[in-house]
Fold this protein.
Amino acid sequence: MTPFLNKENLNGFFRYAMALTANKQDAEDLVHTGIERALKGGFSTIENKPAYIRTIIRNAWYDELRKQRIRNEVTTDLNDTVGLNEIEIPTSMLEVNPVDIIISEIELERVWGKLADQQREILYFWCVLGMTAAEMAKELKLPRGTVLSRIHRLKIFFQKLQGNESEVQHD
Amino acid sequence: MTDSLKDAATDLFNQFELEDNSIEKLMTLEAISGSPQTKPVIMIWASRMAVILVIAVMATVFGVDQFNDYKKQNIIRLIVAEVVKNHSNLKPLEVTSDKLISVSSYFDGLSFSPYSSKFESVASVLNTSLIGGRYCSIQGNTAAQLRMQSSEGVYSTLFQTNETNLFSDIPAMTDQNTIKEFKDGFEVQIWREKGLLMVYVKPASSI
C-alpha cells in the first residue's frame, strides 16, 4: 500500500503552506510542523487526512502570526490595499468561476505577494484544489457566506488588476 | 501568456515543490510514527522487540538467580571440602584446655572471641568434650578451630570465622536448623550466627 505521505501529497501541503506564508522556508517549516503534529495524534483514525493536515498547518500558521503580533496588521493592510472591505456583494457575484477570470501566470506571480494570506488560501482551494464554496467553508470552519465574500473580494482584486473594476460593479 | 485564473494559479502553485531531502525526512516521520500503512510493520518490530526485551529480562533475572544459587552452592562445596580436610588432618593443637574461656583467650589475633553456639547439640559437645584449639582458615579468612573429643575418642571440630560477603548466601541458623552436607564420611553443618560463620564437622556415623 502506498504511504499517505507521498511526494504528491507532501507537495500539496507545501503549496497550501505557500499560500499561507508566501515564503518557502516558512512553508517548509509549517509542513514539518503539520505532519509532526498530525502523526502524534491518532492520525490513523482520521477520515479526511489531507483536510486534517491542512487544518493543523493553518492553525500553526495563525499561531505563529499571533506570536509575531502581526496578523491584524497584515490583514488590515492588505484589505485596505485592495479596498474591498466595504463592498457589498451582489447576489450575481456569489457564484463565480476562476476560469472566467483572465490573468497571465507572470502577472499572478507579480501580485502574489500583495495578496493577504487568507486570499492566497482561497486561491489555492478555489483554483488548485477546485473546491466549492461549501467545501471551503467546511474545511475552514467558516460560514459559507464568509467564504463567498472572500472569493468575491479575490475576484474584485483581479478584475481591478485588469482595469475591469467598473464592469464588475455593474454585474 | 494570458490564461484563466484557475490555470495561472495552478501553474504557479505547481512551481512550489519541496526539496527531495525534505520529502524523505517527512516520509520517514510517517514510517517512524506508525501511520496506518506502516503501523503493522512497526507493530511487528515492536512486538519482536518486546519479546526480546522480555527474554532479556527473564534471562537476566533467572541468570542472576542461577548465578547466585551457583555461587551459594559453590561456596558451601568449598567450605565443606576445606573443613573436612582440616578436620581429618588433626594438626597439632596450639592451645589445649577443656575450658572454652581459656581456649578463646588464645585467639587474640581474631577480631572476635570464639564462643559457644546457640546450636544446642554443638554447645553440648563443646561444653563436655573440648580439648583445645588452633588457628586455621576458611576460604582465606582466619578462623578458630575448636577441637572436641568424646569419651569414645571421636573427634569433632567447630570452626568459627568472621562473617564476610563471601558467606552472605549462607543462611543464619533458625530453629536449630543448619545447612547439612556430607563428605568423605563426615557430616558438615554450616550456619551463620551473631556475625560469625560456624562450621561443625563430625563423623557421619556419630550421634
Residues 76-93, 165-171 of chain A have pLDDT under 50 and may be disordered. The first helix of chain A runs from residue 7 to 21. Chain A touches chain B at residues 1-7, 10-11, 14-15, 18-19, 24, 27-28, 31-32, 35-36, 39-40, 43-44, 97-105, 107-109, 112, 123-124, 126-128, 130, 158 (CB under 8 Å).
